[in-house]
Design a protein that fits this description.
Largest sheet: 3 strands, parallel
Radius of gyration: 20 Å
Number of helices: 11
Number of strands: 8
Distance between the termini: 49 Å
Strand content: 5-15%
Helix content: 25-40%
Shape: globular
C-alpha cells in the first residue's frame, strides 16, 4: 500500500503569479474574481497572500479592475495591463505611428496603476497590421514597446511553448511534443504557420532586447532590470508551472522536475490554476511529499488527460519558499506593492489623448477583442 500524505498547509504562504480575475474572458461579462471580500476568503483557504490578475486590459477596463481590486487592497491583488495590438492596424512595419501610440497607451496604463504587462497569445497567432501581415513577437514594433515597459519598470509576461519546460527538465520528447501540439491546435485549425516554422517567437523577441532590458520570464515572461547581465539562455528564465500538474506533465516524471529545480530554484514559480481545496492540496502534496501513484484530477471526475497517476517530487524544504512565493514576488513586482502609478510612469511621455476609449484613424479601440 503506497503511503498517503495530505499536508494540511504549504511550507509557506504563496503568491499566485498567473490568474484571471477580470471580465473579458467570462461568459457573462462579470468579474471572474468576484467581489474582493469573497476573493480574499478564497485566497485564505488556498494559503495565498497575493494574486496577479492578468486581465487588466487598458483604458476604462483597466480602471475598473484597479478600482475593484488593487486600489482597495494593493497587497492582495496586482493587476497587469494588456496592449491593444489593434493599434498596429494604423500602419505597416515601416510606420512609426504604431509604436508611438502603443508606447503612449502603455505609459497611460502605468500612470493609472498597472503593475505589469501581459502579452496575450493572440500576438503571433492572429494580430495583423495594416498590410495584413501577421505580427510576430520579435517584430520591431513589439520589441520597441517592450523596451518602454522596461523603462517604466513593468514586468512583462508572455506565452511560450509549454514543451520547453519539459525539455529543460529532461522529460521524454514524446511528452514535450504533446505539450507543443496542445499549444498549436489553434494554429493548425486556422491555417497559420506551425510554431516550429515561425521564426519570430518569444525567444527571438528576448534576444532582440538589450541585455539590461530582460530579466525574468513566466510562461515565458520578461522582466526589466536596472543593470547587469540579462538571462539569454531559455533554461535560465523562470517559468510558471500553470496547468502542467493538472495535465499530468510534471507529476509523471517528478525526479526530473526535481533535477530541474534543485540547481536553480529561482527558475520556476508554482501557480494555482484552481483554488479549490482539492487542487491546492494536490500541489502541496506533489511539491512536498514523496507519495507515489496518486490521482491528479478532481475527485469523482474522469482524469483530464489519461488514466494514469502522478508521484510527489519531494523537494527539499529550503527550495519551497522560492517556488511558492519568492520567485513570483520578484517576477510580478508584488514586493512592496502599492500606489496608483510609478514615478517613472508619472514622468513618461504625455498621455495619448483618448486612445484607450475612442476611435483613432477609423479604428474601434474600445477594450474588448483579443
Amino acid at each position: 500500500m503506497a503511503p498517503s500524505t495530505e499536508p494540511p498547509a504549504p511550507a509557506v504562504a504563496g503568491i499566485d503569479a498567473h490568474n484571471h480575475l477580470g471580465r473579458w474572458l467570462s461568459a457573462d461579462g462579470s468579474f471572474v474574481g468576484g467581489p474582493l471580500d469573497e476573493l480574499v476568503e478564497l485566497m485564505a483557504g488556498a494559503q495565498l497572500t497575493t494574486v496577479v490578475n492578468l486581465d487588466g486590459r487598458w483604458g476604462e477596463e483597466l480602471e475598473e479592475n484597479l478600482e475593484r481590486y488593487d486600489r482597495r487592497d494593493p497587497r492582495r491583488v496586482v493587476t497587469f495591463c494588456h496592449l491593444d495590438w489593434r493599434l498596429l492596424q494604423l500602419g505597416d512595419a515601416a510606420s512609426p505611428e504604431c509604436q508611438r501610440v502603443l508606447a503612449e497607451q502603455l505609459a497611460d496604463s502605468a500612470r493609472r496603476g498597472a503593475r505589469g504587462v501581459k502579452v496575450w497569445k493572440d500576438l503571433g497567432l492572429g494580430v495583423r497590421d495594416a498590410s495584413g501581415a501577421l505580427v510576430l513577437p520579435d517584430d520591431p514594433r513589439v520589441v520597441g514597446v517592450l523596451r518602454v515597459a522596461g523603462e517604466l519598470g513593468l514586468p512583462v509576461l508572455i506565452h511560450g511553448r509549454p514543451g520547453g519546460l519539459l525539455r529543460a527538465a529532461g522529460c521524454r520528447q514524446r511528452a514535450a511534443r504533446q505539450a507543443d501540439r496542445d499549444a498549436v491546435v489553434v494554429v493548425q485549425r486556422s491555417g497559420l504557420p506551425h510554431l516550429r516554422a515561425t521564426p519570430g517567437g518569444p525567444a527571438c523577441a528576448r534576444r532582440r532586447l538589450p541585455r539590461d532590458d530582460v530579466r525574468r520570464s513566466s510562461r515565458r515572461g520578461m522582466r526589466p532590470r536596472r543593470g547587469g547581465r540579462g538571462a539569454r539562455d531559455p533554461a535560465q528564465l523562470p517559468v510558471d508551472t500553470s496547468g502542467r500538474l493538472r495535465r499530468a506533465r510534471l507529476g509523471r516524471q517528478p525526479r526530473r522536475f526535481q533535477a530541474l529545480v534543485e540547481p536553480r530554484p529561482e527558475c520556476c514559480s508554482r501557480t494555482a490554476c484552481s483554488w479549490t481545496p482539492a487542487a491546492v492540496r494536490r500541489w502541496w502534496r506533489f511539491l512536498e511529499t514523496a507519495d507515489e501513484h496518486f490521482d491528479y484530477g478532481e475527485p469523482g471526475r474522469p482524469p483530464e488527460q489519461g488514466n494514469w497517476r502522478i508521484s510527489g517530487a519531494a523537494l527539499p524544504r529550503t527550495l519551497l519558499p522560492a517556488l511558492y512565493r519568492d520567485n513570483a514576488a520578484r517576477c510580478s513586482a508584488s514586493e512592496g506593492a502599492g500606489g496608483r502609478g510609478s514615478a517613472k510612469a508619472e514622468s513618461a511621455s504625455p498621455r495619448h489623448a483618448g486612445a484607450n476609449a475612442r476611435a483613432v484613424g477609423g479604428l474601434d479601440l474600445q477594450p474588448g477583442g483579443q
